[in-house]
Amino acid sequence: MKVSVIGTGYVGLVTGVCLAEIGNEVICVDKIKEKIDMLKNGQCPIYEPGLETIIKNNIKRGRLKFSHKIEEGVKQSEIIFISVGTPSLPNGQADLSFVEQVAKEIGKSIDSYKIIVNKSTVPIGSGDWVSMMISESMETGNNKKVSFDVVSNPEFLREGSAIEDTFFPDRIVIGSSSKKAITIMIELYKPLLEQDFEWPDSKRLVPEVQKVPLVVTDLTSAEMIKYASNSFLATKISFINEIANICEKVGANVTAVAEGMGLDKRIGRLFLNAGIGWGGSCFPKDVAALTYIANEYGMTPQMLNAAISVNKEQKLKIIKKVQDELKIVKGKTIAVLGIAFKPDTDDVRDAPSISIMNGLSNLGAKIKTYDPIVKNKPDSLTDRVKICKDAYEAIDGADILILATEWRQFADLDFDKIKKTMNHNIIIDGRNFFNKEKLQDMGFRYIGIGR
Ligand code: UGA
User: Fold this and answer.
1) What DSSP element (H or E) covers 313?
2) Catalytic residue selected from 28, 44, 247, 282
3) Euclidean distance between CA atoms 126 and 147, whole angstroms
4) Largest CB tally within 10 Å, which of 4, 53, 90, 252?
5) Is 373 left (phi over 0), alpha (psi -120 to 50) or beta?
């Protein structure tokens, strides 16, 4: 099938590239020309394991093309995915200005029947709004009689495992009032639904999936499925973080508690890892947007508000732990390992590490940090933080070491060496990632989250 994907962020690029891999002719469009030039040369502008190889393979096969002109994508495809950003405005509302620009451009260029797919996470009701934007823009052109359908097809991939999540999804959701559009979308996703494709990377593990469940519903429900799923997961993490905080008081171990709870099929073990709170480009934005929508209807979404407030406090708890240990933070040196909001990504949006580093720096601490992939100082991080070339440089002379992101390579750190170079041997493990007993036996003071 002929597909175009507008927006080459994590969601758009992965979607386009994977649709090419399963046999479609795909054009990925982005208004940023430098990004498109990189992609045309087979270079991936984001860090996502496995993605660059699939980009290169599909350029070679002639199935994957790139353009910075929306018109080119629209004219050459029957299915057009809108995958542009919907960042949070200061009041929590989703900013739809990028979606609006794209919808208007589509309206101007549409020349035959098209399916417009909302892949961006958009507020409830946006499907109809996109439809209106396209129609209004068509009225000014000479293509008034051309028909189109809008579909909501929310994305559930996680950064860092985006390829696996796309090829082996837990479900595919298609929301539309058009039977024709639904039939075409099912056809597009057939190889994934039936798990009938060749897995592109033989070196990587393939989960056992027989067939992928399909949910066909109306536009509004599909949009709500996305917000409700992300909000539920964020709430689940806030819940276990609250339990972790109680565990600390009563002397229980939250990891054991999560294991014990997670064995109950109704609860499940995933997303019960206590830590320094959830961040990234999705949970904070989507929970805030759903809260905003509820407020618009005069509701107070108490569960969502609680999830947000527990999360805010969880980041501050790390600062409190540092104060408890060092008493005076001013003039102390603190090493922070990990900047990205989670491992296997270079994304620093709403990363808890940044709030923690900014907070400690404001208290007068000297902060040194290292991340295996994030090499440049994020704009949201204070200039006073030093980015180091490796973990040992960050830890050298530190009074406290904080683990903020559980990159796999941090498991192999040489703690004998670290012990010799730290000022005080205090480790705050913000992800319950290190081996507590081993570190304690080596003479470190180990502080985890709820263990
Ligand atoms: C999330 C959802 O998991 C995806 O299903 C969704 O498609 C995506 O948002 C999106 O809306 O685009 P992502 O933000 O990439 O994916 O990352 P997650 O793995 O969900 O992690 C989010 C945050 O929760 C991270 O800060 C992570 O460290 C934290 N987390 C996750 C925990 O603190 N504990 C856990 O047990 C799991």
Assistant:
1) helix 302-326
2) 282
3) 19
4) 4
5) alpha
Whose tokens are 């992101």? That residue is 405
28 is catalytic: no
Tokens (6 digits) for 376? 């440049």
DSSP per position, 15-39: HHHHHHHTT-EEEEE-S-HHHHHHH
- How many separate domains does the chain show? 2
**94 within ligand 1 shell (Cβ under 6 A):** no
**Torsion sign (Cα): 370, 375, 378, 383:** positive
Q: How far apart are the C-alpha atoms of 150 and 131, rounded to whole Å?
A: 6
Question: What is the reported pLDDT for 208?
Answer: 75
Displacement of CA 278 from its chain's centroid (Å): 10
With a 6 Å cutoff on the Cβ, whether 284 touches ligand 1 is no
Ligand 1: atom nearest CA of 11 is: 12
Helix-strand-coil split of the chain, %, nearest 5? 45, 15, 45
29: its two tokens:
């469009």
How far apart (Å, rounded) are the C-alpha atoms in residues 104 and 124? 19
In the predicted model, what is the mean pLDDT of residues 387-397?
98
Does the Cβ of 230 fall within 6 Å of ligand 1? yes
Residue-by-residue DSSP string for 425-450: -EEEETTS-S-HHHHHHTT-EEE-S-
Say yes or no: CB of residue 341 within 6 Å of ligand 1.
yes
Cα 448 to chain centroid distance, Å, stands at 25
Q: Is the dihedral of CA 442, 443, 445, 450 positive or negative?
A: positive
Tell whether 15 and 159 lie within a shared domain.
yes
Q: Tell me which of 197, 217, 237 is where a domain ends.
A: 217
Could you tell me how many residues make up the chain? 451
Domain encompassing residue 106? 2-217
Of 217, 251, 282, which residue is a domain's last?
Answer: 217
Q: Is the pLDDT of residue 358 over 90?
A: yes
User: Residue 91: is its pLDDT beyond 90?
Assistant: yes
Tell me, in angstroms, the distance from the centre of ligand 1 to residue 283's CA.
7
Look at residue 88 and give its three-state secondary structure.
strand
418 lies in some domain:
yes
Whether residue 441 sits in one domain with residue 328: yes
pLDDT by residue (tens digit) across 196-217?
988 776 666 677 778 999 999 9
Does the beta carbon of 138 sit less than 6 angstroms from any atom of ligand 1? no
Per-residue pLDDT reduced to its tens digit, 244-255: 999 999 999 999
